[in-house]
Amino acid sequence: MRHAAPAARQLQHTCQQFRTICSSSVSASGWFGNVEQAPKDPILGVTEAYLADDNPEKINLGVGAYRDDLSKPVVLNVVRAAEEKVMGKLFMEYLPIGGLKSFTEKSVKLAYGDSAQCIQDARVAAVQSLSGTGSCRLFAEFMHRYMPGAAVYIPKPTWANHHNIFRDAQVEQKGFRYYKPDTRGLDFEGLMDDLQAADEGSVVLLHACAHNPTGVDPTPEQWQQLSKLMLKKHLYPFFDMAYQGFASGDCDRDGQAIRIFLDDGHNLGCSQSYAKNMGLYGQRIGCLSLVCADKAEASAVESQIKAIARAMYSNPPVHGALLVDNILGTPEIKQQWYDEVKGMAERIIDMRTLLQQNLEKSGSSLPWKHVTEQIGMFCFSGISPEQVDLLAKEHSIYMTRNGRISMAGVTSRNVDRLAAALHKVTS
């Protein structure tokens, strides 16, 4: 026992030496010395390369935001009018976790239709979200918790961030054929075959309109066939709708896929974003809604989505919600918004026509009809990564390496130069 105290002191001294060594090691290398540099986002990389180019005729076809014919950002007149109406009217208090209730109610009607039976039956769970990305992330987390073991089937290709969202929610991802490079169009046969073989009880991610990145959408008849197959196979449809109104210029037409599925009896999910169709990119305003079996189920589902949101970010921002609520809730302003979003869509459609015409006039022997057959902000050009590199190196024209053209970057002033460059690199 006489030796116990010295032994204890020796052990204490040894431990202190160990802590000192560890502390020195941490201070020398930092707490996060093992953290590797994350790869650059491919779209942000395009913008960086564009900004570093000193050619006055450079063209940025990577940006996923609307630009006018002078390549300038646009704030809609209805947004300015709504800002004047809501400015200074409310305190800056927190919104509820689920967001502004009148905003989510109007959003659901915009997506599903004012007279949708699911709305009349009060069986839609809906929360305000951080734009479309936030909606998808909330759903992915909800899926992980309450659809255990279910996989999500994602179109090949899709918006790149879809993969990040479901990966981080620890949801298994599987792919289904969507785009056919040979025709620059929809691989409907492959799509149907892959979903016919999909595991029952899985989720299928669908772009409601203006598929990103391809600009290729199913026809109404193809949506009907797909709906019936998914109903038979017990597959859950989750629609990402980032471009309602922006694709065709008609909000009802752009929402027809969802309404076809509702009419067939699907319970489904929908992610809405107001970034593109109202130009509210920086406001991060969106809505997640899930159609449920009945009112009680909708209440339970909504409560759990709010619980997920509480831990992620607690409350959504107020300003964007007030703007959208005012625009959708004021008949004359809502009609003006319909007119403005139609104008944006028509400019994109006009640029598609001009690009195809200039490509054909350039003497190109390649088929370019897909430029006008595709729809929405993006055109999947079909050119190779190497040809994309040549466009940047020799012509100061920048786009993502998969050949996706942001049609918002095409203007009446640069379309002829773009067509000539495309002809040169593809000849």
Question: What features would you describe in this structure?
Answer:
Its EC number is 2.6.1.1. Its cofactor is pyridoxal 5'-phosphate. It is an enzyme of class 2 (transferase). It catalyses: L-aspartate + 2-oxoglutarate = oxaloacetate + L-glutamate. Keywords: Aminotransferase, Pyridoxal phosphate, Transferase. The structure is a single chain. This protein has 427 residues and is of the alpha/beta class. It folds into two domains: 118 residues, Alpha-Beta Complex (Aspartate Aminotransferase, domain 1), CATH 3.90.1150.10; 235 residues, 3-Layer(aba) Sandwich (Aspartate Aminotransferase, domain 2), CATH 3.40.640.10. The chain has 17 helices and 13 strands. The strands form four sheets. Strands 2-10-9-8-7-3-4 form a seven-stranded mixed β-sheet. Helix 3 packs across helix 13 and helix 9 packs across helix 11. It is globular, with a radius of gyration of 25 Å. The N and C termini lie far apart (92 Å). The mean pLDDT is 93.
CATH architecture of the largest domain: 3-Layer(aba) Sandwich
Q: How many individual β-strands?
A: 13
CATH class of the largest domain: Alpha Beta
Can you tell me the CATH superfamily of the largest domain?
Answer: Type I PLP-dependent aspartate aminotransferase-like (Major domain)
Unreliably modeled segments = none
Question: By helix and strand content, what is the structural category?
Answer: alpha/beta
